Amino acid sequence: MPYEFKAQRRVEFSDTDMAGIMHFSNFFRFMETAEHAFFRSLRFSIAPQQFEPGPNKIGWPRVHASCDYRKPLRFEDMVEIHLLVAERKTKAITYQIRFGKITGDTVEEVARGRLTVVCVSFDPASGTMKATSIPSVIADQIQAAPPELLA
To answer: Where is pLDDT greater, at 91 or 57?
Structure first.
């Protein structure tokens, strides 16, 4: 079962701040992009209409997001975004996301983030969300990464 996903992305000029480095907020956008690509690699989408028709729509709100920055990324840098499933519970998934600057054949870690999402169902009548079990069709395809990979 999958527990990791890697993507590459170039730092665009619009990703940078006045100091010429990637703005801290864009690391969170990159995390979300990697999460969506991970779901697509499993032939799913995080969009609610992808799942059961009718009133039983699900969503994936974020309940935690953090990032520790070690070195800057700059315009034109190539970045490896390495998503690892740190934990999969009945109703939530926590990802560890490592950002690596690609230089030739080497990847130097420059930041590390964490993102926790909870599976929720929507009640169309009240407009509320409630935590719910991750559908088995999704949960059965995702497992936590081995501890040695998360160190």
So the answer is: 91
The tokens describing 146, both together, are: 């081995």
Active-site positions read 17
Tell me the C-alpha distance between 101 and 114, whole Å.
18
Q: Determine the Cα–Cα distance for residues 49 and 86; give it in Å rounded to an integer.
A: 27
How far apart are alpha carbons 4 and 34 in whole angstroms?
A: 10
Contact 77, 101 (CB under 8 A): yes
CA 39 to chain CA mean position, Å: 9
Single pTM value for the model: 0.90
Give bridge partners of residue 80 from the DSSP assignment: 8, 100
Spell out the domains of the chain, with CATH numbers in brackets: 4-146 (3.10.129.10)
